[in-house]
Amino acid sequence: MRWLRRKLNRTHWVAGLLGYELPRGETTEPGLIVLQVDGLSRRQLEKAMEDGRVPFLRKLVRRGHFQLESFYSGLPSTTPAVQAELFYGKKSAVPSFQFLDRATGKLRRMYEADSASDVEDELRRECGKPLLDGAHAYSDIYVAGAARSWFCSRDFALREIWKRVNVLKWLVLSALYFVKLLRIAGLAAVELVLAFVDVARGLFRNQDLRKELSFVPMRVIICSVVREFIRLHILLDIERGVRVIHANFLGYDEQAHRRGPGSAFAHWTLKGLDRTIRDIHHAAMASSYRDYEIVVYSDHGQEKTVPFARTSGRPLAEVVGEALSTGPASSFPVWTPAFPTVVGSTWDRCRGLLQREVPLESMAATCDPEKEIILTALGPIGHIYLPVKLGETERAMYATRLVEGGVPLVLLPAADGVIRAFDREGSWTLPGDERHLIGEDHPFLKEATEDLVGLCQHPNAGDLLVSGWRPGIPPVSFVLENGGHGGPGSEETHGFVLVPDRLERWHRGLRAGCLRPAELRSMLMRYLDLSSEEAVAHHTTPANGTLKVVTYNVHSCRGIDGKVRPERIARVINQLDPDVVALQEVDVHRLRTGHADQALAIARHLRMEHSFYSVLEEGSEGYGIAVFSKQPFEIQRSALLTQAARGKEARGAIWIKLPASDGRPAVHFINTHFGLARRERIIQAGELLGDEWLGAVAKDEPAILCGDFNSVPSSRVWQRLNERLPAASQGRTGQVARPTFPAHRPLLRLDHVFASSDLEVENVIIPSTPTSAVASDHLPLCVEFKIPTE
């Protein structure tokens, strides 16, 4: 069925018809898909989960597949700065989204191809290998070494657009995805209707009609067309086995800028994004070639802002011109770039080239930093570049005038490395007065203080910095938007990361204070490094007086997706952090599972002692049961319970003894796997209850018997074993015993743990994450016991 489903898969056919080379077999190299939700803060994500806007993400978080973590963006809290730190490890690579490059005298706007390319070339020279080396990238600021990219800033250069034109390819895609194209058209039509409703609302609030209408095509393109295009291409990438994929989805960010981060229009876009992530997740989990991990994160959040022109009654450029109208800068005019409309400067360039009005190289914004005061303020933080070098006293005078003109906060770097700040209450310093300037309830106060100081000292920062963030007043943006980011606000710097269970353990080991782009980069780089070992979290059993036991039928490490993955089994076990583990159906050097020693591979991943007992041997091949322990143990006995006969497998057991320590008694631990026929199970139970097994355990020493008994609780076998050792099927009061087979839809309780009555059951855990549901045909059963003192 898996083979047939793959052959009939439309994405598989499209990839072949487009001439893509499809991989054969399987690879042990892990794959990584990183999905960025631009501008969505953690608080807004949690609100969307509560309101049912992102049901798929909510389900994965509740099932434990994802761990929701806070993400500190750093400063400035903009995509170019966050992606520079994530892709290259460089903090505060740019001072804002729009700034003056002092070395070249050029204005940098990071949505432009030339600006993004120049900044990235410098990052590459300084930092070396990027995160996305050889990857595929979508809608990012930087290409970051990607072998293929779409909708990244540098892709909007005309030469790049021309190279990608392939009429035949687009005709094939249009034919094969005709229904999908109709769906995209339908979504675009819905977006168009909603956009005009939004226009009507904007007019009711006295917004500018031209600006409202110019936002309509951008909204339709970004919120529907581009999102669906990226989704289809990522599905093709998964089919082709691309190892690393990074995509940035801009729909929510665009809506939040226009109508506010908590607006219904912004949250409406999250529904489509949730469906997109669901499709990508399902395709990645179904990949027959590569095992993928998916990370979902937001680079930053957004503050609900008030336009500066509304609070002060005039634009920022006018306030700056008046404040600097006297003194040493009075003879210089104020120059500020106009914010482009429709789809940014790309549209302006294409239109100019088609009309042959302006050549490509002269389309960049021109300014003269030696003869003009340059003002760049694209959001809640801005830079003022002065054509003359002024002392601290003169700049402080201008800062005071700007505050009197309505600017909430003005920052200027001092010679001693301390940042001086001015607001209506007086002058302050950073570090020192961060509680007043940033806020005592800021979730990342220490980090934001350090980064704000570093931002002011950036080589391309302005001589004066204006900020719309100050505790106690509504955040202000210096452009016409109801949602903004770029400054040190508690919401705009507070994104999120949905970390899968495998990477979450590395996150615990690497984390220092808060998870920021550099830490996320380290986590992802370590995951992609094939030589790095899986992180494990070991607790010390004697210290807390508990013993956590896991029994797990691993089905020869072959999951229900057909992949043989011992490391995936180890990952499921490691999530439970057990002290001792019993595994059934383990292959060692068998042809059918690639001659791997599965017991040894799992032991290395878990960093545990282990012992394997083979109930079936054919030459060098073995098949049987295994036990694993954090602590050294003694093997008491390993033998067959019944011989193989008439098509029935031989069945056996292995008995180990965990030594006494710190006033705790020794614990006897037996792992077994019963047969499929009722009569042989009765015989096997009788053997275990006899004098050579449980009958030989000292009465004053606890014993645990576990395994796959192929018996339900109503069976005679289960009842006989339960009389000797009570079943630990329930933990604390209120817990209900749950089935473990089959893994994808558990119906039967075949896996059991029986224990002496002096071992008190603390908890029973049966994980139901997407990984555990596919790793084997059984789910693991974990029981935590409280060990009595001797």
Automatic annotation (TrEMBL):
Keyword Nuclease included in the entry's annotation:
yes
- Recorded protein name is Endonuclease/exonuclease/phosphatase family protein
List the GO biological process terms. Answer: GPI anchor biosynthetic process
Alphabetically, the GO molecular function entries are: endonuclease activity
Q: Show the SUPFAM superfamilies listed in the entry.
A: Alkaline phosphatase-like, DNase I-like
Q: What is the lineage of its organism?
A: Bacteria, Pseudomonadati, Verrucomicrobiota, Verrucomicrobiia, Verrucomicrobiales
Question: Domain Endonuclease/exonuclease/phosphatase spans what residues?
Answer: 550-778
- Which keywords, in A-to-Z order, does the entry hold? Endonuclease, Hydrolase, Nuclease
One annotated Gene Ontology cellular component of this protein: membrane
**UniProt entry tagged with the keyword Hydrolase:** yes
Which Pfam families does the UniProt entry name for this protein? Exo_endo_phos, Phosphodiest
Please tell me the species this chain comes from.
Luteolibacter ambystomatis
Query: Which branch of life, at top level?
Result: Bacteria
